[in-house]
Amino acid sequence: MCELILSLDIYEEKKIKEIINVTEKYVNWFKLGIIPFLKFGPSIIEYLKKKGKKIFLDLKFFDIPNTIANASRIVFEYNIDMFNIHLLAGERMLEAVLNEKEKNKSRSIVLGVTILTSFSDEDITMLGIKRSLKEETMFLASMAYEKKMNGIVCSVSDLDFLRTIFPKPFIMVCPGIRTTEYADDHKRVGGVKQAVSFGADFIVVGRPVIESSEPVKAVKNIIQLLEQ
Ligand code: C5P
């Protein structure tokens, strides 16, 4: 079963609480990224926890191993359900986080971010990366799999080949989901049905819901597609 994670990229207190309150009946997982976390800090974690909601803390850690291991310890203290680190930060950083997780006996799901959905093949070449976007995604996903991370964040457009190589229970979380043709700043988007049929465990949706004039209707529409 593929689940919806609602991305709360909102910096106005009234609006974020309103969105949480009107959607909580339908949504179990909420994503807190850099926008709400910078604005509200741990209080927004508390707000969701009190409602019994699951939290995906999307801060995409990328730093030296010691710093990230110490930051992860705080995530474990908050009892966060799922969080992520950039796979491009390398093996030693991943190992430091996983060691910290073991030390803290945490059950938090640790995901590795592959290549952002706002990247195209051209963007990868511009950065001087010799592999193609697909090869680099494969390389990073293999690293996460071999290091026994719980899963990855990837584009729906990479899901078909990734899922055939890395079977469940390796978790695949897909942002860049669109129900219309407008893709915002993503270059590699996909639909809900595509995500489900290729084996995504979670889809992450933000603007199609939080910027909708009818957020509840937008959520219900996505859930209906997930259940079909
Ligand atoms: O509004 P939208 O549905 O595009 O929101 C997608 C969310 O997923 C944003 O919070 C963005 O930061 C996040 N994201 C991600 N990894 C990607 C692409 C987007 O975590 N590859």
What does this structure look like?
The protein is α/β, with parallel strands linked by helices. The chain has a single domain, classed as Aldolase class I (TIM Barrel), CATH 3.20.20.70. The protein is about 45% helix and about 15% strand. The chain contains eleven helices and eight strands. Strands 1-2-3-4-5-6-7-8 form an eight-stranded parallel barrel, surrounded by five helices. Helix 4 packs parallel to helix 5. The longest helix has 14 residues. The protein is globular and about 45 Å long. The relative contact order is 0.15. The structure holds cytidine-5'-monophosphate.
Provide the domain count: 1
Provide the list of bound ligands, each named once.
cytidine-5'-monophosphate
Our estimate of the beta-strand percent is: 15-25%
Principal-axis shape equals globular
Please identify, by name, the CATH architecture.
Answer: Alpha-Beta Barrel
H-E order: EHEHHEHEHEHHEHEHEHH
By DSSP, the count of extended strands is: 8
Put simply, the count of helices is 11
Q: Uncertain runs with pLDDT below 50, 5 residues or more?
A: none
- In this structure, how is the largest beta sheet organized? 8 strands, parallel, barrel
Percent helix, as a range, is 40-55%
- What is the subunit arrangement here? single chain
Task: Label the structural class.
Answer: alpha/beta
Biggest sheet: strand arrangement = 1-2-3-4-5-6-7-8
The average pLDDT is: 96
The CATH superfamily name is Aldolase class I
CATH topology: TIM Barrel
CATH first level = Alpha Beta
Radius of gyration, taken over Cα atoms and rounded to an integer in Å = 17 Å
Query: CA-to-CA gap between the ends?
Result: 11 Å
